[in-house]
């Protein structure tokens, strides 16, 4: 893992923060902070915070439905970013092969499960369709599209199509077989999955970092601020995703089924909602959100196969502040995390991560003091 | 001879080494109300939970002639076998209407819409409270919602686990009236109750469970008349 993940140094304020120590005589302490710099920092923080918000919400969603604290969410971002950046560079991303491998492993699991419990030809056909045919179709499309200069929109759509199925397939292989295990077991598994995915990332994408060109070279001057098209895209897509997720959970039957599974797993089964269906759907949404975050991040920083972890952890801090339960608190906390990180990177760039992750401590203490301990369901 | 909906054949259920249900057999025919009565801890709820598939069981369970012993809960639900569990298991932080909508998860949208209208006709109280959160309702209303949610799947056989538990006597009377109505509407019912007199009055057939086994079976009216059985097995209700 690189010593310092080059995560988002996109604007003059951050650049200033980095150059500060070399300017001699003041031992790295900034001399003066004017309102402009603060505004830059705020803008930078909100941009990053918006992406953390998407991550945090995905983490809350996955935990509520499956009780998995999904550490590897960051890998979906890295895979999404790498896929998009490589497509933009006119290359065929390793995600294509990763998807096919995942599908083949999931099919093996389904096949063995079918030998054990029966279920006949229909079940086998369904597994073959979802695990083999669908990934192959998406991979085939990617091979046709890659390198022909179809433009960012097609590449973004293809990235989402490649990354999203990884979620349900991962759930099928790693978490569905132990769906009723304790939260701790699921967490340990999640850490294991994270390590495996980082390794697979290295194998399928290589150690080289990539960066996508900006979505547009639009620059809007707003007072002292320069708002880039990339920033606007982040704000707009984050807001749109949050609204879309909200509509999905409030209005659609599948969204309600996910909420129902989160509220009462047995109750959900008794109305015919399969726990494995809800789990796969939650992981699919998480992968979709992760892929989207990756596309948004790709033009802002150089992405390596293991960049996702630190980004994911910031979303995790937000999710914890939201008690792994509240979507709005998580989103607000994510923005706060982004701003704190941005300000910390200016005033104490060496301690940036320490300061961000320390945010979690008072929240945990406050929670453990004020809330009655919830016994884990058995 | 009417069609046998559910056939439970020498079913045994164990929690670890403890045998909670031993070799129980019983049938439910179309249009019937069958009740299983007995004291607390006799294994009645365990039997229902095994029948829906929430607990593993030995023996055979047939529904509409098909062996469903190895099917998942969700597949049994899809075939029209529904359980209203003792603890209701509602979606407490969701609205009454959403609970009903989810009850119809497995049926086509159009059917679900019509069924919801029927459920609201049957339980006007639920219609009044459609936007209220399920967890904020009274015990009787929650029981009605649990039954309503199960009806949304258009069950062929509805299993009710202690529907009168913890409810005021007036509400208990309501619940038993609803059970009679449901049967009149063509839903067969397997009813587990501690309130033996009320259950025997509502049912066609009855089985008394004691320490995991069925000790007495027969027409409900006959068991209800047998003071000896009522006193020794059921106490004074």
From TrEMBL, chain B:
A Pfam family matched in the record: ABC_tran
Classification via SUPFAM superfamilies: P-loop containing nucleoside triphosphate hydrolases (SSF52540)
Top-level taxon: Bacteria
Keywords, in A-Z order: Amino-acid transport, ATP-binding, Nucleotide-binding, Transport
Keyword Transport among record annotations: yes
One GO term (biological process): L-amino acid transport
Family annotation (SMART domains): AAA
Domain named ABC transporter: residues: 6-236
GO molecular function, one term: branched-chain amino acid transmembrane transporter activity
PANTHER family: ABC TRANSPORTER ATP-BINDING PROTEIN, HIGH-AFFINITY BRANCHED-CHAIN AMINO ACID TRANSPORT ATP-BINDING PROTEIN LIVF
Homology family: Belongs to the ABC transporter superfamily.
Protein known as: ABC transporter ATP-binding protein
């Amino acid at each position: 893992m690189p010593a310092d993940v080059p995560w988002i140094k996109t604007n003059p304020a951050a650049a200033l923060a980095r150059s500060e120590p070399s300017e001699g005589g003041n031992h790295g302490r900034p001399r003066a902070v004017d309102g402009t710099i603060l505004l830059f920092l705020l803008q930078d923080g909100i941009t990053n915070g918006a992406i953390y918000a998407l991550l945090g919400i995905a983490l809350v969603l996955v935990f509520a439905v499956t009780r998995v604290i999904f550490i590897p969410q960051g890998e979906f971002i890295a895979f999404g970013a790498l896929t998009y950046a490589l497509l933009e560079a006119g290359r065929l991303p390793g995600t294509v092969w990763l998807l096919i491998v995942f599908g083949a492993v999931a099919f093996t699991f389904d096949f063995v499960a079918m030998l054990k419990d029966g279920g006949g030809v229909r079940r086998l056909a369904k597994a073959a369709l979802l695990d083999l045919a669908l990934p192959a179709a998406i991979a085939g499309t990617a091979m046709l599209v890659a390198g022909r200069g179809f433009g960012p929109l097609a590449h973004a759509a293809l990235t989402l199509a490649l990354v999203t199925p990884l979620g349900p397939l991962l759930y099928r292989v790693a978490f569905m077989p132990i769906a009723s295990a304790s939260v701790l077991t699921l967490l340990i598994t999640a850490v294991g999955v994270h390590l495996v995915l980082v390794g697979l990332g290295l194998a399928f994408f290589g150690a080289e970092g990539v960066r996508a060109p900006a979505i547009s070279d639009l620059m809007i001057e707003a007072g002292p601020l320069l708002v880039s098209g990339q920033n606007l895209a982040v704000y707009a897509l984050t807001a749109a995703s949050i609204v879309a997720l909200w509509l999905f959970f409030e209005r659609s039957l599948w969204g309600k089924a996910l909420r129902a599974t989160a509220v009462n797993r047995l109750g959900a089964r008794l109305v015919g909602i399969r726990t494995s269906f809800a789990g796969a759907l939650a992981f699919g949404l998480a992968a979709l959100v992760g892929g989207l975050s990756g596309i948004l991040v790709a033009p802002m920083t150089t992405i390596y196969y293991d960049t996702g972890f630190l980004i994911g952890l910031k979303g995790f801090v937000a999710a914890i502040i939201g008690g792994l339960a509240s979507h709005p608190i998580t989103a607000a906390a994510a923005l706060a995390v982004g701003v704190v990180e941005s300000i910390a990177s200016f005033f104490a760039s060496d301690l940036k991560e320490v300061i961000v992750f320390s945010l979690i401590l008072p929240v945990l203490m406050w929670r453990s003091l004020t809330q009655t301990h919830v016994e884990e369901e058995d | 001879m009417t069609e046998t909906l559910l056939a439970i054949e020498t079913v045994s259920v164990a929690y670890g080494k403890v045998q909670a249900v031993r070799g129980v057999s019983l049938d439910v025919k179309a249009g019937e109300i069958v009740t299983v009565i007995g004291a607390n801890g006799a294994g009645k709820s365990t039997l229902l939970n095994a029948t829906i598939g929430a607990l593993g069981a030995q023996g055979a369970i047939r529904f509409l002639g098909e062996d469903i012993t190895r099917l998942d809960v969700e597949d049994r639900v899809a075939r029209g076998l529904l359980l209203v569990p003792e603890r209701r298991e509602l979606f407490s932080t969701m609205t009454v209407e959403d609970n009903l909508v989810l009850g119809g998860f497995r049926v086509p949208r159009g059917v679900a819409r019509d069924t919801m209208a029927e459920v609201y006709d049957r339980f006007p109280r639920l219609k009044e409270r459609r936007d209220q959160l399920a967890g904020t309702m009274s015990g009787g209303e929650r029981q009605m919602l649990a039954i309503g949610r199960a009806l949304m799947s258009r069950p062929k056989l509805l299993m009710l686990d202690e529907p009168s538990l913890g409810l005021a006597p007036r509400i208990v009377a309501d619940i038993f009236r609803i059970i009679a109505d449901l049967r009149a509407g063509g839903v067969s019912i397997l009813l587990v109750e501690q309130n033996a007199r009320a259950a025997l009055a509502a049912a066609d057939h009855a089985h008394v469970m004691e320490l995991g086994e069925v000790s007495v079976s027969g027409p409900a009216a006959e068991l209800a008349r047998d003071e000896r059985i009522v006193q020794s097995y059921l106490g004074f209700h």
